[in-house]
Amino acid sequence: MKFCSECGGSISQIVPEGDDRLRHVCQQCGFIHYQNPKVVAGCIPEWEGQILLCRRAIEPRHGYWTLPAGYMENGETTTTCAARETLEEACAQVEIGPLFSFFSIPHISQIYLIYRGKLLKEEYAPGYESLEVGLFDAKDIPWDELAFPAISKTLELYWQDRADHRTRVYSGDILRRDGKPGDPRFRISAQDISNAD
What we know:
mainly beta; Nucleoside Triphosphate Pyrophosphohydrolase; three-stranded antiparallel beta sheet
């Protein structure tokens, strides 16, 4: 950020009085431009025991598979976003159900909220952000071709719940490792918060 959106003045990174981190601050009017995490919302669209996945037609991770999900727009709820993204990416109408997983991803400043969803009818097609879409059983999911760690973990937990005949809600963090030999690229933790007090 170089210029203030309020007055056009020059921006500097300083720690404002009473704050504890660098912020983009206008040197002319003093406006503080806060930058906060982006919220990604999506769903697990279910149809007769299968789930709908989309193969990405855009970067990042072009050609890899994912659940329909994307950034929230101003003025919409997370459930509205999840339904909109499913319509945009898979041309499918979905009834959004309960929250399934919530992941914080601090190294890219994102929060993922994935809901359970029910396809209203077996009609879907690639949207402008998808190369193809399809319904998958657990055994047919392209596990090595999933786009993002949050999606991989969500699907792993989803199929685990299906096998256990349970419905849980998960929360966790996806943290980038420091790249030491032998370490996986990401450390993913999740906990069942279904019955948390």
